[in-house]
Write a structure and sequence with these properties.
Helix content is about 40%, strand content about 10%. With about 525 residues, the chain is of the alpha+beta class. The strands form 5 sheets. Strands 4-5-6-7 form a 4-stranded antiparallel beta sheet, with no helix packed on it. The chain has a 3-stranded antiparallel beta sheet with strand order 3-2-8, with helices on one face. The longest helix is centred in the C-terminal third of the chain and has 41 residues. The N and C termini lie far apart (about 115 Å).
């Protein structure tokens, strides 16, 4: 068949240096669910039924998959650990202590901080982060009675009858600023469509007077135009299914391989012998035919016919390709949960210490980002709400907060720090940097998730408190027993820098009494 020559225009068009990603080829599949001229992030999950189905599928992975559920728990455990700690800094020390005591009392009581009276604030931290990872987002409503009402993502929905600018329950103005969140009154049947606007309760996104958030929406967007969160398991939805299929197929192969298989090798002089009964026999009739089912038992011995060799067959289950392929699939799941695969499996046997340390260091970069986001979107708005509420109910506190040089919402959240992977080596490296002027103390502590100013103040305050206690106790002992001459350093052991030694001497008067006369020739 003769090929038609290409036209000059076609040849010239193919010579242009365009981006290949902008064209459909056999290596790049045709895009679906998107506009060829570009679209906002909300367009990609515009179908509410598919959006909710994706959310429920991710919840199913968490419930039933042996890897995904454990991976989510491992991620939350690394980020939240024992919880975030509040450091109040209004400029008034007494006020700081008062607000910190109020927060500790409120956050530690499930009846005080949770609308259902079931979870303390620390427990809500863990569940909120887990819901954000699995569902994509979640909501918290600060109530007038001082408690938090937690709302799961599937309850934020859009009635079909509305014509307003609403994206899956988020009402926006013309500038895409959130105005209201529409939440269903009660959990509806997932198969039941939400038609009436009267079936939802609208909540103002912000307080019209103060501008403070009245609905805390926890989600981690990928784009500026994204109004709802998407499950972190969306990219590995197929991968999780592949992992299940691999495990199931391997299990079936192992079961089949466990059956008895005997290979008969017969020579030229083979001749059959009488029937050998190997176990109890049963007769079964199927479709008009009768078949014999012969049982087997432990220690079964089978004899071959003359000039016949018997050999047992055993399949290689699992095959050598199973383990690397399964590890690759698990790696895909782990990295989408921001975890090294060795942490996901709690098994570092496939790497050495350097590999383990490198993976942990990279993972902690992401952990710190999530901690910062979590504190800004969850902890800080809740603390600001509680301070306003306490001030509104306590006039004396309100007057103190309105005093000059007092920062009304002055505070910071200290995320859980990460322990040294190799404590002696890591601490020595920090000390070496500071002693040799390779780095400043504030930067060294910042790299460890601490603030040098706060650490220095705490060190001085703690040492000062210990010294004052030791001085007071030494004075008390010396009054009761003057001959003891107890020095305050004998009552306390303060840490000293490496290479520095402190010798405790006797009081001056006692030293003079103990010194020998000038003409005394006795060896000291």
């Amino acid at each position: 068949m003769r090929r038609q020559p290409l036209s000059l225009a076609k040849i010239w068009g193919e010579l242009r240096n365009d981006f290949r990603a902008g064209k459909d080829t056999r290596f790049t599949s045709r895009l679906t669910g998107t506009s060829s001229i570009g679209s906002g992030a909300d367009y990609h999950y515009r179908s509410e039924s598919q959006f909710l189905h994706m959310m429920e599928r991710a919840r199913g992975y968490q419930r039933n998959d042996p890897i995904v559920g454990q991976g989510v728990r491992r991620l939350v455990a690394n980020i939240v650990q024992d919880g975030f700690t509040l450091d109040v800094n209004t400029g008034d020390e007494d006020l700081d202590n008062d607000l910190k005591a109020r927060w500790d009392e409120w956050s530690g009581s499930a009846d005080a901080c949770h609308s259902e009276g079931e979870f303390t604030f620390s427990q809500m931290e863990q569940l909120a982060l887990s819901a954000t990872v699995v569902d994509g987002d979640m909501f918290a409503l600060p109530l007038a009675n001082g408690t938090l009402q937690t709302v799961e993502a599937h309850r934020c929905r859009t009635p079909r009858s509305t014509t307003k600018n609403v994206v899956h329950g988020v009402l926006m103005d013309d500038s895409a600023r959130r105005l209201e969140y529409w939440l269903t009154k009660e959990d509806l049947n997932p198969n039941q469509p939400l038609i009436k606007v009267s079936d939802i309760l609208p909540y103002k996104a912000r307080d019209p007077k103060t501008g403070e958030r009245q609905v805390l929406h926890l989600y981690q967007p990928y784009r500026f135009s994204q109004r709802r969160g998407v499950t972190a398991l969306a990219p590995v939805s197929d991968t999780v299914g592949m992992h299940d299929d691999i495990q199931f197929a391997t299990l079936v192969k192992a079961q089949m391989a466990a059956l008895i298989a005997i290979l008969h090798e017969r020579g030229p002089d083979w001749r059959p012998t009488g029937d050998q009964q190997k176990g109890d026999r049963e007769q079964d009739t199927v479709g008009g035919y009768t078949k014999t089912i012969e049982g087997v038992s432990a220690g079964l011995e089978i004899f071959g016919d003359p000039d016949e060799k018997l050999s047992a067959f055993s399949a290689n289950i699992p095959s050598p390709e199973f383990f690397p392929h399964a590890m690759m699939v698990l790696t895909f799941i782990a990295i989408n949960l921001d975890l090294p695969v060795h942490v996901l499996l709690l098994d570092p046997s496939n790497t050495n210490f350097s590999g383990w340390r490198g993976a942990i260091d990279q993972a902690r970069l992401r952990f710190k980002q999530i901690q910062k986001w979590f504190a800004e979107c969850f902890h800080t708005p809740i603390y600001r709400w509680k301070v306003r509420q306490w001030a509104a109910r306590d006039p004396s506190l309100s007057s103190r907060l309105e005093a000059e040089n007092v920062r009304l919402f002055g505070h910071r959240w200290n995320p859980p720090a990460f322990a040294y992977l190799e404590p002696l080596t890591d601490a020595s490296a920090d000390l070496l940097q500071q002693r040799n002027a390779l780095n400043s103390a504030r930067r060294i502590h910042a790299a460890r998730g601490r603030e040098w100013k706060v650490v220095a103040e705490e060190i001085v305050a703690d040492n000062g408190m210990a010294i004052l206690l030791a001085l007071a106790k030494a004075e008390t002992i010396n009054k009761l027993y003057p001959e003891a001459a107890v020095h305050w350093r004998e009552l306390i052991s303060l840490p000293t820098p490496d290479g520095v030694q402190i010798a405790l001497g006797q009081p001056q008067q006692q030293q003079q009494q103990d010194q020998p006369p000038a003409n005394d020739k006795t060896k000291k």
